[in-house]
């Protein structure tokens, strides 16, 4: 450990509290605990266990079949389209940017496909969606910092629109290269069914309700380095 | 009846282990400028008892610190204390306690709240980086990066403090 860190540790303030621990402990455990779920009977537990196993087997089977054969699940299928030239990638990216919005004063960054790289044809659109999302989140953070209510509402509305029209959630168990049903209008970003979209929605709700901590953190994490 | 009694004893035994962190929570709250660190710690423990079944069985410390942080923020809102927006909404409350080493205190106060909190979680609150990451609400990898930078900035700020004692050299905050 460096001398500075050692010195920091030694500078830890000595706290001597005057808490009567025994009394506090007794006082706390005398209060009721939150009510737990009613206990499940043994037969009920067995039924629940069998149900869970059956569901797990079903998910595993469906997921495996889906991954291996490109099994069509509600129109979702394995994406076999590819783009392997930077020029094609940039065209798809530009097309996507025309369907999306950025906050005032922001410009679409130049992006391209690294040489000798292959990706799916939906990926450039997904990139554009992510850029738009981050830009609006950071715009919202700035609006909050400056107390600009109308700008904050505008950002919230833009993000709600983005989630509603350009973000899709893949069915549980989908492989990474999943594609939505044919005819889905690009651009879109595909989220795994892991609660991520619910987290983002909650983050926006919280920010709109005056609790922007997660939004600020998201902007910090995903926004341009050193600008927020 | 016996089952209920045994369950209650089991809960108390488990809570007794959680309760051993009371002193750490008092220290955490005091070092973040709470006006009533003992009250905060008692409230954390009360909530922990109430929600004992949902506490992480393996390691309750991050949960306790997060709860303490939330209560500290609520205390700040109640008392209407002014703090920069970043601190009010995004970061844990800043440490205000005298560390017993004026140069260390001054160096700490030069850091960004997030950096300061990362340092103190590990150095003063005895959390491992993985535990501290859970308190800070970031991934362990992100936390390690933050901690690394915070250490570097702290070292710079501390050496500037020492330089300041001898001359007039100061160090500004880095931005990332």
Helix content of chain A: 40-55%
SSE pattern of chain B, N- to C-terminal = HHHHHHHHH
Number of helices of chain A: 8
Which outline of chain A best applies?
A: extended
Specify the biggest β-sheet of chain B: none
What descriptive keywords fit this protein?
A: 228 residues; mainly alpha; two-stranded antiparallel sheet; two-stranded parallel sheet; B: 176 residues; Rna Polymerase Sigma Factor, Chain: A; 9 helices; 69% helix; elongated; disordered C terminus
Explained architecture:
The complex is a heterodimer of chains A (228) and B (176). By secondary structure, chain A is mainly alpha-helical. Helices cover 54% and strands 4% of the residues of chain A. Chain A has 8 helices and 4 strands. The longest helix of chain A has 28 residues. Chain A is extended and about 70 Å long. Chain A starts with a helix and ends in a 6-residue tail after the last helix. Chain B has 2 domains: 93 residues, Rna Polymerase Sigma Factor, Chain: A (Orthogonal Bundle); 82 residues, Winged helix-like DNA-binding domain superfamily/Winged helix DNA-binding domain (Arc Repressor Mutant, subunit A), CATH 1.10.10. Chain B has 9 helices and no strands. With 176 residues, chain B is mainly α. Chain B is elongated, with a radius of gyration of 18 Å. At the A-B interface, α1, α2 and α8 of A face α1, α2, α3, α5 and α6 of B.
Give a summary of the structure in a few sentences.
The complex is a heterodimer of chains A (228) and B (176). Chain A is extended, with a radius of gyration of 25 Å.
